[in-house]
């Protein structure tokens, strides 16, 4: 039991140590740091990197597929019983052991350019996967920027709510003194007290929204929820708020040339067209060439073999008889017999049985169950689908840019209107506050003026960050980095 406890302690301790080694020590994040960290640790980015690596391997395979193949092999067998002696071609009842060895090579001389087009297709697929990786990184950067700006927005909302709570608390204390002096009815105190409670609730809600915004960014960065996080607030200057200076058509023209989503769609369309050519290669004949060497060993081989370069003698050998009994007549033949022999050792036999071969093969497709035409038809559908996906990607990009351009224009108008509204309502609130302090305005008038100002300030902050984010989106489509500098 002690050993088990120690083992668990070591395992858990090792896990904690490993996690501590991997967890970042940074608690203050700039937008650039957050984007770079997410690009390195986001799971979708990692999966896209694996896709690139897979296509690199496939491209290398298609390159080597153009080279000849080279294979070697060996076999061994042992048999008992009746079998044909390969040296005498006579059936014998014996135990035979044998081995064989081969080395062969095969090369495709022509197959309708299928292998060449496959190589070109894999090159396009690799480039498309690289653009897919860049597109995923762009999406991650936009998501991180959205979460980052959302934190800035909620931090400013929280600061505004805390300021309103402090002002309400001061007003509550002032009202208490006026009620004690008899300048205001006691009901005014309770109404202001209710306003203070409402402002405290607003602070709590703003704090919760801020924590949720931070949690969203932590999840994008693959950080634990309890990881401390502080955002470095950038210097954002909004001296002039207006519609974006570049028209949506010009932005689209730039984005169409630079966006990796469009590049990947273009490459996949070209790849699918090569797929049609690859499938059409099934209509063409195939020419292949083969070469190799073989040798074998058998235990039935004779004990001696003619020595290489041996001289031969002519022997007369009887091979049978002719005629009828009793007048048989022998039949003779002349055979050349070597005069110099060598021991038939294992390696001598392998050398003696060595065989070399070269062949060229032609395969002409005539009818193969409509398979070639089916593959061509399917590849054309794939090509048409790739063309539609390319068109869809361009349409979606254009619509996104047009929408973002209108959003910037609307955000600019909303920002200016909210700014003017805040300025007017702030003056109205100050006037109402003075009247309330002098007793010429009721607490209802004061609370209404304060509520109107609170809503206007929240709308102003929201319009401000809406404008900031939408302009950053258009900057992104123009190829500019997502920063606040």
Automatic annotation (TrEMBL):
GO terms for cellular component: cell outer membrane; efflux pump complex. Pfam families: OEP. InterPro entries: OMP_efflux (IPR003423), TolC-like (IPR051906). The keyword Signal applies. The keyword Aminoacyl-tRNA synthetase does not apply. SUPFAM superfamilies: Outer membrane efflux proteins (OEP). It is found in: Cell outer membrane. GO terms for molecular function: efflux transmembrane transporter activity; porin activity. Keywords: Cell outer membrane, Membrane, Signal, Transmembrane, Transmembrane beta strand, Transport. Its main location: membrane. Residues 1-20 form the signal peptide. Belongs to the outer membrane factor (OMF) (TC 1.B.17) family. PANTHER family: OUTER MEMBRANE PROTEIN TOLC. This is Outer membrane channel protein.
């Amino acid at each position: 039991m002690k050993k088990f406890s120690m083992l668990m302690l070591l395992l858990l301790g090792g896990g904690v140590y490993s996690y501590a080694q991997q967890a970042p020590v940074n608690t203050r994040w700039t937008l650039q740091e957050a984007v770079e960290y997410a690009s390195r640790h986001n799971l979708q980015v990692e999966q896209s990197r694996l896709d690139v690596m897979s296509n690199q391997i496939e491209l290398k395979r298609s390159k080597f597929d153009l080279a000849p193949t080279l294979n070697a092999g060996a076999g061994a067998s042992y048999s008992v019983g009746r079998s044909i002696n390969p040296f005498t071609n006579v059936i014998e009842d014996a135990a035979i052991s044998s081995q064989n060895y081969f080395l062969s090579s095969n090369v495709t001389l022509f197959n309708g350019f299928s292998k060449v087009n496959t190589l070109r297709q894999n090159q396009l697929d690799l480039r498309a996967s690289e653009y897919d990786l860049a597109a995923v990184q762009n999406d991650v950067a936009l998501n991180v920027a959205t979460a980052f700006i959302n934190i800035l927005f909620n931090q400013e909302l929280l600061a505004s709510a805390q300021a309103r709570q402090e002002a309400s608390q001061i007003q509550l204390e002032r009202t208490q003194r006026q009620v004690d002096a008899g300048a205001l009815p006691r009901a005014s105190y309770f109404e202001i007290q209710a306003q203070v409670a409402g402002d405290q609730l607003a602070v709590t809600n703003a704090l919760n929204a801020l924590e949720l915004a931070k949690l969203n960014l932590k999840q994008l960065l693959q950080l634990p929820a309890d990881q401390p996080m502080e955002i470095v607030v950038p210097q954002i200057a909004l001296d002039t708020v207006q519609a974006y200076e570049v028209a949506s058509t010009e932005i689209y023209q730039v984005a169409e040339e630079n966006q990796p989503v469009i590049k990947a769609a273009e490459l996949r369309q070209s790849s699918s067209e090569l797929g049609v050519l690859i499938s059409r290669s099934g209509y063409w004949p195939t020419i292949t060439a083969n070469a190799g060497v073989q040798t074998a060993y058998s235990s039935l081989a004779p004990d001696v073999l003619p020595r290489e370069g041996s001289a031969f003698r002519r022997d007369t050998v009887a091979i049978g008889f002719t005629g009828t009994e009793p007048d048989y007549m022998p039949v003779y033949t002349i055979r050349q017999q070597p005069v110099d022999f060598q021991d038939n050792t294992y390696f001598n036999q392998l050398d003696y049985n060595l065989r070399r071969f070269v062949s060229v093969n032609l395969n002409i497709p005539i009818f193969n169950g409509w398979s070639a035409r089916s593959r061509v038809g399917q590849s054309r559908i794939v090509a048409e689908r790739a063309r539609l996906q390319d068109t869809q990607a361009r349409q979606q990009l254009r619509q996104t840019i047009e929408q973002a351009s209108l959003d910037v224009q609307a955000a600019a108008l909303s920002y200016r209107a909210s700014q003017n509204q805040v300025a007017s309502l702030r003056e109205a609130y100050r006037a109402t506050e003075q009247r309330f302090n002098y007793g010429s305005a009721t607490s209802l008038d004061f609370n209404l003026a304060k509520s109107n100002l609170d809503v206007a300030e929240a709308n102003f902050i929201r319009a401000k960050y809406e404008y900031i984010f939408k302009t950053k989106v258009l900057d992104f489509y123009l190829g500019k980095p997502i920063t606040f500098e």
